[in-house]
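Supplementary Methods S3. Input chains for the assembly prediction are listed below.
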Amino acid sequence: MSYEIERKFLVVGDFHPFVRKSLSIKQGYLSSHPERSVRVRIQDKEAFLTIKGKGNDTGITRYEWEKKIDVTEADALLRLCEPGIIEKIRYIIPVGELAFEVDEFLGDNLGLLIAEIELPSEQTTFEHPEWLGAEVTGDVRFYNAYLATNPFCKWQ
Amino acid sequence: MSYEIERKFLVVGDFHPFVRKSLSIKQGYLSSHPERSVRVRIQDKEAFLTIKGKGNDTGITRYEWEKKIDVTEADALLRLCEPGIIEKIRYIIPVGELAFEVDEFLGDNLGLLIAEIELPSEQTTFEHPEWLGAEVTGDVRFYNAYLATNPFCKWQ
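Predicted structure tokens for the full assembly:
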């Protein structure tokens, strides 16, 4: 049993010069319910099954359970998922002891960029680089589970 | 990737004299969707996460993925599940090389008894003991995922 403590931001500037590493992600949802999402993710040559509960009052902390699974099994499970598979490129950008993950969405979510930072506690402070935009932590529209069924291309 | 090949029956007679073993089961659903159910089960001192796809045309075969998980993790995941936790006693009754599993439901499904038999192929024949009633294979009302949200006590 563990908790994910994470803050989420829009991206408003060029972060590319600071990227340390990038990886490709393909993921789908067996359940996109915000209180019990079940995600299948293939990330480069690894795959994971991840279950998340609902966010707490601040929206920063969520219960998270994750297990590594076989990529071939993940492929089969992706075929069972709700319509709306998400594909994105994830860029890792270190800041001090921590790291931003900037997700550049493809397909129906093309044009959307979201930066996330995982924290050891809700109170942890961190550097806000110039390319970081407005905070969207806890805004369910920016949950990937929401984007799977309500892609960015259909937003007003 | 594997498939569950299973037939399901009502129970109309006394099966107790033939029981070889019994175990207690508590299970909930992170998703009760019949095309992608996600089940958390604690069975005596073991726990499993099981994902099932929809049944084929005959309703006998369903895609199934299962992983053993820690009981303490299963306990935490059960708290995330949809309302409607199922509790039942499972009785194992050998028939030749195969075995019936008779589930005696408790709580809101009290009074319901379902016998299941897992088969190596859809064509496999097996003995039908006297206590076995009508076949309900493929009838989604007898899916445990359905019973979780539509318990037997509320049936007309």
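The mean pLDDT of chain A is 95. The interface with chain B takes residues 1, 30-31, 33, 35-36, 38, 49, 51, 53, 63, 65, 67, 69, 72-73, 76-77, 80-82 of chain A (CB under 8 Å).
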